Amino acid sequence: MSNIIAIVGRPNVGKSTLFNRLTESNQAIVKEVSGVTRDRIYGRGEWNGIPFSVIDTGGYVKGSDDIFEGEIRKQVEIAIDEANVIVFVVDVMTGITDLDEKVAGMLRKSKKKVFIAANKVDNTERIGLSSEFYSFGFGEIFDISAVNGSGTGELLDELVQHFDKAADMDEPDIPRVAVVGKPNVGKSSLINALTGEDRNIVTDISGTTRDAINTRYNSFGFDFMLIDTAGIRKKSKVHEDIEYYSVLRSVRAIENSDVCIFMLDATEGIQKQDLSIFYIAEKNHKGVVVLVNKWDLIEKDHKTTKEYEDKIREELAPFNDVPILFTSTVTKQRIHRTLETVMRVYENRIKRIPTSELNEVMQEVIAGNPPPSVKGKYIKIKYIQQLPTHAPAFAFFCNLPQYIGESYKRFLENRIRENWDFEGVPIRIFFRRK
Ligand code: GDP
Ligand code: GDP
After folding, report:
1. Which chain positions lie within coiled-coil regions (predicted)?
2. Which amino acids are annotated as binding site, given as ranges?
């Protein structure tokens, strides 16, 4: 079940501004990694308790209107393929431009629900300016101001009506495993190695896509759904381009999964695009198993694996309590081990710690190392409970939840991880007043 909103439109209409507004509540937890500026292309938001994702398909092309139609076409294709609903942003101050017409033309051919957000309606004088956009024929138009937020609530009220209500009801209730990673890390090769077919034949025709294929894997005692990353364009002229779009392309597969097999190319190490994909899995609280693939190509001595592993853990921090396996789809090294590990991570993700056991262990930890007092006030954690969520989340009930800092939270998470096996699974910790 995925609720994905895509924002499309020509440059400068306010897509990024709207993106930031819709994902506002989550910006605080976006972490900056040294040397890596995270692309603002994927974010999580929530409206009336309904979580959703937003993808900004235009994040890559900034600045002027002087862009190729082909570029816009790619953005719109991604939106049509990956999103449940599309927000087409236009600018009431400039009115309809040629590029707007082109976007509208492409969107009209798709079956996806499209909403026009007429942006920059910052004040009442500008109401009414948006009526010219009715000529696009998409129905109701939402006057908004992405900078001051007016009208965005009405837009969200409408958008949430069009999310998947009960998708995948006909799917069997078995673990869902997505194979993700940037292009050429070996995703298709892994899937072929598992299913023993050449299912994902890569054609040489530029721009060829393949559809998302979900395959039930049922052998050697394993039974799960394999979720393939949909139609990554293999042959693109612009290298960065394809990597950027591959991140957006991963969103749906990740959101529909329980555990992600996150593949890296051993000869390249971990790069920015890899991390972007990893963060999407983490933000969605999915289980993760890291495969350092093409290990057959690495010249090794007795220290190579350990050093490589340490480096990757450093890059993935703070969420680095994850299994890391060194694989080859060519020599079939550790392919079976991969599946065993995926299943262990799946079990970790649905693990429930009894409240009594949790309190017994954690109260002792807390007694030995209580939260630091703030302004002379002592913080008392009274009891702890695992919440009935899909992925592990713990509530610490206390007198002054607002005074507990990030480092103490991290400390508690680490102690939880030491006492119970949550390898491969993000953990959430909440402090609640009691
Ligand atoms: P993008 O290229 O479509 O992502 O557009 P941006 O979000 O970068 O916005 C382009 C310009 O329009 C920036 O200078 C924004 O500050 C401005 N802008 C965005 N939303 C609004 C709005 O609601 N009102 C006004 N007046 N300006 C806006
Ligand atoms: P995808 O884009 O992630 O699906 O990657 P592919 O499965 O298409 O693999 C990209 C290229 O890497 C192909 O030429 C594969 O033959 C090669 N490849 C994949 N896995 C391995 C591996 O474990 N070892 C080596 N040496 N090559 C691999």
Report:
1. none
2. 9-16, 56-60, 119-122, 181-188, 228-232, 293-296
